[in-house]
From TrEMBL:
Lyase recorded as keyword: yes
Keyword Lyase: yes
Reactions the enzyme catalyzes: orotidine 5'-phosphate + H(+) = UMP + CO2
UniProt keywords, alphabetically: Decarboxylase, Lyase, Pyrimidine biosynthesis
EC number: 4.1.1.23
Gene Ontology MF terms in the entry: orotidine-5'-phosphate decarboxylase activity
Family: Belongs to the OMP decarboxylase family. Type 2 subfamily.
Protein's recorded name: Orotidine 5'-phosphate decarboxylase
Pathway(s) served: Pyrimidine metabolism; UMP biosynthesis via de novo pathway; UMP from orotate: step 2/2
The Orotidine 5'-phosphate decarboxylase domain, residue ranges: 19-267
Organism of provenance: Nocardioides imazamoxiresistens
Length: 285
């Protein structure tokens, strides 16, 4: 059987449904706002309602693993069912789990998420390069083998990030080095490479501009839209010519519209539509 690379599958999904990556983050405050318990049963109801709403309209849905893991095996079982619901509805699943370790441990994590035979198999995962980009090699090899994708942290949306990510070594920032490595991984598959970068929709683009080309031949996940303050204008300013590669990511802003399925779906469409226009070059300036 031919394995279709993640980058190719993503491009087709974005053409069909637009670039929005909606998050499923069962925050305690959201569980309460939806009238649910802050417990495993509440997370089950929350996540599967969100999956029912978002799985049919979004190209990519990003469950945040931490909010499931905090309820132990019951939470992880819910995550498995949520992933299955989303994939059955036609969405690509990006599991936000920010893994990264060394050698055989990285391989075990890669197998856990990117081997289609694993209980928690997804289309792509977020990974951390801060043990050295080379430590991600097992993820890269496993993703290539199974047609999976990676989103590597480069310029994250949190205000503490520049302390590490903007640090300069041999004239290159850490983030620039990560982006260089991703460009090299995508070289044979650009513009539909399977190896993406995480670049927040909240960053100071001027800082990042110095030597950090966002033209990596693969997707750019831009979390921070909505609750963290990131806007369409920020995405235009930060990403410039690379805007067509951006997957704007938003969780709380959309989830706050629940628990009504139609309202959740409408919120995702309303948040996503201006970004689809930006990608297509039809957004008003
Ligand atoms: O740089 C990053 C990387 C990941 N995230 C994750 O995205 C969502 C954001 O949720 P909002 O409710 O839209 O703020 C969350 O799961 C983060 O862990 C990020 O925010 N920034």
């Amino acid at each position: 059987m031919t394995t279709v690379p993640f980058g190719v599958r993503l491009a087709a999904a974005v053409d069909a449904r637009g670039p929005l990556c909606a998050g499923i983050d069962p925050h305690p405050a959201l569980l309460e706002a939806w009238g649910l318990g802050v417990d495993a049963a509440g997370v089950e109801r929350f996540a599967r309602t969100a999956a029912e709403a978002l799985g049919q309209v979004c190209s990519v849905v990003k469950p945040q693993s931490a909010f499931f893991e905090r309820f132990g095996s019951a939470g992880v079982a819910t995550l498995e069912r949520t992933v299955a619901d989303l994939r059955a509805a036609g969405a690509l699943v990006l599991l936000d789990v920010k893994r990264g370790d060394i050698g055989s441990t990285s391989q075990a994590y890669a197998d856990a998420y990117l081997d289609p035979a694993a209980p928690l198999a997804v289309d792509a995962v977020t990974v951390s390069p801060f043990l050295g980009f080379g430590s991600l090699e097992p993820f890269v090899t496993t993703a290539r083998r199974h047609g999976g994708g990676l989103f590597v942290l480069a310029r994250t949306s949190n205000p503490e990030a520049p302390q590490v990510q903007a640090a300069v070594r041999e004239g290159r920032s850490v983030a620039a080095t990560v982006l260089d490595e991703l460009r090299a991984l995508n070289a044979d598959a650009a513009p539909h490479g399977s190896f993406g970068a995480v670049v927040g929709a909240t960053i100071d683009g001027a800082d990042a501009a110095a030597g950090e080309s966002l033209d990596i031949g693969g997707p750019l996940l831009a979390p921070g839209v909505g609750a963290q303050g990131g806007t369409l204008e920020d995405v235009r300013r930060i990403f410039g010519a690379a805007a067509p590669a951006v997957l704007p990511a938003s969780s709380r802003e959309i989830l706050a519209a629940g628990p009504d399925v139609a309202a959740l779906r409408a919120a995702a469409v309303a948040v996503g539509e201006p970004f689809r226009a930006l990608r297509d070059g039809t957004a008003p300036r």
